[in-house]
Amino acid sequence: MSMEHEAALAAARKLGKDVTPSARKTYVSLVRKRQFGAIQPSTTDRVDLGLVLPGVEAQGRLEATATVGGGRVTHRIALHSAKDVDAEVRRWLKAAYDRDV
Q: Whole domain around residue 77: which residue ranges?
């Protein structure tokens, strides 16, 4: 597991005790009641943090996607290092977590 992957997973776990990481073939699904995110290796130099944020406009580092973590994920943020899991990423991760009620 890369440092980016570990940092994203740690940030997700801090959202609440009800966060359950679930390993899939090519990614780790982040589940509360349903999947709200995914962590997926993309290339040798990045990990994608996928988020379920339907209706949210892509902006800045938050990009629209349909290729991360199965069909529910709508957006991704590319993580090139553990430092990329910053306040902005944690805000988007929390937004996806909060929507899954």
A: 3-99
pLDDT of residue 66: 84
Q: Give the 3-state secondary structure of residue 9.
A: helix
For tokens 């209706």, what's the residue?
Answer: 55
Looking at the 3D structure of the chain, how many domains does it have? 1
Instruction: Output DSSP code: residue 62.
Output: B
Tell me the pLDDT tens digit for each residue of 27-42. Answer: 999 999 999 999 999 8
DSSP letter for 28, please.
E
Q: Are 70 and 61 in contact (CB under 8 A)?
A: no
Contact call for residues 78 and 88 (beta carbons, < 8 A): no
Which residue in 86, 90, 7, 4 sits closest to 47, CA to CA?
A: 4
Closest to 41 in 3D by CA, of 25, 61, 53, 62: 25
